[in-house]
Amino acid sequence: MNKLRSVLFPFLFFFLILAFSWDHSQAVSARAASAPAILKPTPNQEEAARYIAQYLLQNHYRKVPVNDSLAQQIFNRYLDNLDNNRSYFTAPEVEKLRQEIGVHLDDDFVSGNPTRGFAIYNLFLKRAREKMAYMKSTLETAKFDFSTPETLELERSKTAPWPADQTELHDLWRKELKYQYLSVKYSGEKGKNIKTELLKSFNNRLKIFNQQKPEDAFQAYMLAVTSSFDPHTDYFSPDEFENFQIDMSRSLEGIGAKLQMENEYTVVNEIIPGGPAFKSNHLKKGDKIVGVGQGDKGEIIDVTGWRINDVVKKIRGPKGTVVRLKVLPASQAGKGPARIIRLVRATVDLQEQAAQKKIIYENGHKIGVIVLPSFYLDFEGERQQKQNYTSTTKDVTKIINELKRENVEGIIVDLRENGGGSLEEAVNVTGLFTGKGPVVQVSNALGGKMVLKDENYPMLYSGPLVVLVNRYSASASEIFAAAIQDYGRGLVVGDRTFGKGTVQSIVNIQRPFSMFMKQSDLGQLKLTIAKFYRISGGSTQHIGVLPDIVLPSLIDPEVVGEDTYTSSLPWTTVSRTPYVPSGTVSREEIASLKKEFAQQSSKDKHYQSYLADLATLNRIRQRKSVSLQEKSFEAENKSLKVIQDRWGDANIDTGKKKKTDFILQEAASVLDDLVALKSRPAIPAAAPAPRPAVRQVVPVR
């Protein structure tokens, strides 16, 4: 690359921004003419960028070569983050940015120079203001024809090129406006004037674009840099890290959810067990929060494009107060109506995080269920050797003993929605079912490997076992499920798991001691430093744990999961560590159970109805575009609502009746078949009795 141009460019980039041609109409130009001043990086941000580069190159698990390929990765990821739907930039602009700026981003990364990253962000703000001005102007005068068979492509970064010119870009904006108009109309919020609501939203977005600060540009650019190494490596500014610490301590009153920014949306990153969101079972990982309202009657404010800290401030509040969230469900792949979720703010209830038990009666068999929302541990209590410190292993031990006294014939360990937690606890809980021995292998960035074993807890339960997982089961949950599968100790049932097989560490970005500056004002870096491997040698990274018997859920696998990230670390293998499989469930028995489940479920009308609705949902998800013809739009929205009402949010109080946890019941049926299989004589037995139409679930307190 041209190093001379690299040296001269920082002095010229402001002029290049002004040189980008944009043949806008007079009305739009007049509205955008009073744009704020161009953002520039602060000295602290420039210094932080240099340290971030050093930490990434020296300590990240993935050793990324600094070359033109890295420059293009950063550039492409940055533009996709800023303009995911390709509705701000045109193809000629993108190519000019690529040639003038993109080719230098590897040099900028090494030197810790974010200046060119700011140049792209400034151009993005200019285009964003122009788009909002256009939307406002068009909304005031447009007369939409919703009978025309017209479509709009969603998630355009995956399906469509950048608009070729201004005419094509304006046509895209027009279609977006029609889509937003229909979305408000069919949102379910009564008494709303559509044009008034949209105008509020556009004015709000314009205000946000006009109030951007250097920190916004720096955060956006650093996200592109860090996520080019892997999706779980991230930079926190001092303010953001304060929020991160509050989330980790789980002490602040709110809804009990961790949030992150993706493009212009506030996205749910994690539901904290024991919090209001967890108890309601309405809010899910991957959901996009587009509006926040205070109390039962307060106006819902559009928060699209807001800073994450500002959205968090709106959602947090005193214990006992109500907050309403307007959400685009992840299960609907960005299509369909938004949902209004009512939550009562509260502190996280540690008792609600704890393992719980249920009893299910299935086909005459008594089955125990252990629900594990997370793998938790009171680290400080353990360190101080307190007698009653909180521990997953202690709680599961107590529950297993209770279930054994109640003579259950099998146990289901429910790890759905379990995003992980303490690695130590995952290892120890595994030992309760497998006995002492290796559970997981950990490989560090230098190639060193460590085998973590359960050495303290002997096998406590050796009977029939099913581990129930879904796409939200991640990290420590996957370690447990993989070990049960590798030992042949039980069946893994449900959806393929998330696939997060990496380990992160928080690094405080420090400068050499200075009497004039604090060491904490440069922020923190969450850095991927290691990778998990199964005892059989394969990693849980990227592909997760594949179930022995699949029970598909409504979770969209194209939206949720490690393989949905473009920079996730690959699936790899290491050597198998010595271990002795228990042989509780053989491959032949698994094959027999799969066949038996297929035969039974094919005759189960309830299950077949579920599969039919799931197929309809998948067809809607996989459609690259959404109809802007009102009748088609309304019909699709109704289909999505019917499916969500029928099968979504299992086992919650809807205000009318309590729904059955359908997937848990199917898992109980699989365990029932396993119990029956283990009790069969050597000679072939009669065909299993058909499953009863109604099953009973009895919670145990």
Descriptive report:
- It contains 23 helices and 20 strands.
- α4 packs across α11 (214-226) and α9 (166-185) packs across α10.
- It starts with a helix and ends with a strand.
- It is globular, with a radius of gyration of 27 Å.
- The chain folds into three domains: 43-229, no CATH class; 251-349, PDZ domain (Pdz3 Domain); 352-510 and 521-584, 2-enoyl-CoA Hydratase, Chain A, domain 1 (Alpha-Beta Complex), CATH 3.90.226.
- 42% of the residues lie in helices and 16% in strands.
- The longest helix is centred in the N-terminal third of the chain and has 27 residues, at 115-141.
- The strands form four sheets. A seven-stranded mixed beta sheet has the order 18-15-14-11-10-9-20, sandwiched between helices. Strands 3, 4, 5, 6, 7 and 8 form a six-stranded antiparallel beta sheet that branches.
- It is an alpha+beta fold and 701 residues long.
- One of its GO terms (biological process) is signal transduction.
- Belongs to the peptidase S41A family.
- Keywords: Hydrolase, Protease, Serine protease.
Descriptive terms for the model:
701 residues; alpha+beta; Pdz3 Domain; 2-enoyl-CoA Hydratase, Chain A, domain 1; six-stranded antiparallel β-sheet; 20 strands; 42% helix; 16% strand; globular; disordered C terminus
